């Protein structure tokens, strides 16, 4: 793609990864400031919408990020092969914007979910597990590429969808469609397992335990009122 911003300045392609995180910096405060109070009036939920629905909506958006990537890659490849044209790199922005919104709902929702719903002392551990799952996913992606190449080659000398080191010869658009299908299946899997979850509140459970063990239900104030050293 054409990476020119001006005649003398090229946009480093790797810098496009910053788009979702810049979007997070802008959108998350807007989400908490405007959307949450508005949704709270309608749903009566403290977070506007439940944390599980927030995460699920983010996973659903991730599918459309892959759909956007597949459609753009098809257009880019057709323009390059049929008209010998190179699209501007800014065409790739929508898929990163959708992915950024997906991260806002999913990643931020997961962290909030762990801190509000997990047992005491498990919040940091579960958050670490989340980031470990990201690294594990990056590792599995390389296995997925090799597996797709092997299946789509069918023993031919032309190789698979991603065999060549040339995007005009490879079929990256088909690979993105496969990723869209896998993302949607991941969303369906999430719906299945999230229906099994029973909501709880660590804070309310702790308060309940305190009241059961404390006749006044006031913690240290009970001892203060009774002059217990």
TrEMBL record:
One GO MF term: transmembrane transporter activity
Keywords of the record: Membrane, Transmembrane, Transmembrane helix
Bias (Polar residues): 204-217
UniProt topology in membrane: Multi-pass membrane protein
Taxonomic superkingdom: Eukaryota
Gene3D superfamilies found in the cross-reference section: MFS general substrate transporter like domains
Chain ranges passing through the membrane: 20-39, 51-72, 92-115, 124-148, 174-193
GO terms for cellular component: membrane
Region (Disordered): 204-229
Localization (cell): Membrane
Family label: Belongs to the major facilitator superfamily. Proton-dependent oligopeptide transporter (POT/PTR) (TC 2.A.17) family.
Protein name: Uncharacterized protein
